[in-house]
Write a structure and sequence with these properties.
Elements (H helix, E strand, L loop, with lengths): L3 E4 L7 H12 L4 E3 L6 E5 L3 H11 L8 E3 L15 H10 L4 E6 L6 H4 L4 E5 L4 H10 L3 E2 L14 H8 L5 E4 L10 E4 L5 E5 L5 H8 L2 E3 L9 E3 L16 E7 L1 H17 L4 E5 L10 E4 L4 H17 L4 E5 L7 H11 L2 E5 L1
Parallel strand pairs: 1-8, 2-8, 4-6, 5-9, 10-11, 13-16, 13-17, 14-15, 14-16
Antiparallel strand pairs: 2-3, 3-7, 4-7, 5-6, 9-10, 12-17
Helix pairs in contact: 1-5
The structure holds threonylcarbamoyladenylate and magnesium ion.
The site of threonylcarbamoyladenylate has 26 residues, from β5, β6 and β10.
Length: about 350
């Protein structure tokens, strides 16, 4: 399959260009498109062949449900059994934007999208290109991140092309994603309400609107030396670069010592090593050091970009110093812990 690339203005997308992609969706094709979080891979929710094609293109396991994207609040009603008052409050405050809500699904939503669950994940993206595409396609659009399954999510059209060239019909190129990490996923069907995946909308912001909210733990365990912990729900590495990733949290001085020791030993083994951090004082001489930015938002925006860049440069091992879990930092650490081959808390 030839993948067609259509460049569009990120803020004022040309209707005719969007129409080409919308027509592909209506005919059962699959389209990569920008959202404010990461690029999505869209398929019309009522086309079972498009949904099949989408799972195949990503190499995604069928038991992982998809998020349904809508362009207006009106579209939500038909997808769910009920829109509870808490959802109304959250939508008012955060939609359009990087918040995905999990609600009980209506019969209209095919079970291939929800992996047989009684619930459906719904989000209204803020990106003008995403909204125009969904509006012009005139139907809800299922869209996982537009990466091959397991890899870091794509934050620009080039990343989508790297992963999915010849596997998708079209990519709308609308520039880089501003948030850089996937949406916050909030389950409103569990009591207490539960953040399943942290994102740019923070737990604190959500609590301000609806009160008690729990956060699903992202750690693969706790303790001192945690090499790969295997538990059923964490079968796969997620968001992961090709390079091996070692992640450390804990006492700064211990991290410095361990990072230096690891770097030295890897260099002796002729490995290409890079260290990622926000703090110059962790930098190790003799290897590549990448400063991720000075605010949580910058680190969030840069994370996948840097992981993909280091892969392109054929880095063998990435050493990562844990980031502060303030604001979007919680989401950054959630992704890093899931991507890590080795993860240690140094006490
Ligand atoms: O920012 C985003 O959310 C991006 C853009 C493209 O919108 N999309 C995205 O989709 O990250 P994906 O498929 O990569 O991640 C969807 C997450 C998965 O962790 C999936 O398991 C969870 O949402 N999910 C979807 N439906 C669910 C449901 N009914 N119950 C629990 N989790 C669900
Ligand atoms: Mg994904």
């Amino acid at each position: 399959m030839k993948t067609r690339i259509i460049s569009v203005h990120p803020k004022k997308p040309d209707r005719k260009k969007i129409e080409k992609a919308a027509a592909i969706l209506r005919k059962g094709g699959i389209v990569g498109f920008p959202t404010e979080t990461v690029y999505g891979l869209g398929a019309g929710i009522f086309s079972s062949s498009a949904i099949k094609k989408l799972f195949k293109a990503k190499g995604r396991p069928n038991d992982n449900p998809l998020i349904v994207h809508i362009a207006s609040k009106k579209q939500l009603k038909a997808l769910v059994t009920e829109v509870p008052p808490v959802a109304v409050k959250l939508m008012k405050k955060f939609w359009p934007g990087p918040l995905t809500l999990i609600l009980y699904k209506s019969d209209l939503v095919p079970s291939s999208i929800t992996a047989g669950l009684k619930t459906v994940a719904v989000r209204m993206p803020a990106h003008p290109v995403a909204r125009a595409l969904i509006r012009q396609a005139n139907m809800p659009v299922a869209a996982p991140s537009a990466n091959r399954s397991g890899k870091p999510s794509p934050t620009d059209a080039g990343h989508v092309l790297d992963d999915l060239n010849h596997r998708v019909d079209c990519i709308l190129d609308g520039g880089a994603s501003i948030v850089g990490l996937e949406s916050t996923v909030l389950d409103l069907t569990s009591k207490p309400y539960m953040v399943l995946r942290p994102g740019a909308i923070t737990v604190k912001e959500i609590r301000k609107i609806i009160g008690t909210v729990k956060v699903y733990p992202s750690r693969r365990g706790t303790g001192r030396q945690l090499d790969r912990v295997k538990s059923p729900g964490m079968k796969y590495r997620h968001y992961a670069p090709k390079a091996r990733l070692f992640l450390w949290e804990g006492r700064p001085n211990r991290i410095r010592t361990v990072a230096q020791r690891n770097a030295a030993s890897l260099l002796r083994q002729k490995q290409k090593v890079a260290l990622v951090t926000t703090d110059l004082s962790y930098c190790v001489s003799g290897i590549q050091n990448v400063l991720m930015g000075s605010t949580a938002a910058e680190v969030g925006r840069n994370l996948y970009l840097v992981l993909r860049m280091l892969d392109r440069e054929k880095t063998d091992v990435i050493l990562a110093v844990g980031f502060e879990e303030k604001k979007v930092g919680l989401a950054v650490m959630n992704r890093l812990r899931k991507a890590a081959d080795r993860y240690s808390v140094l006490l």
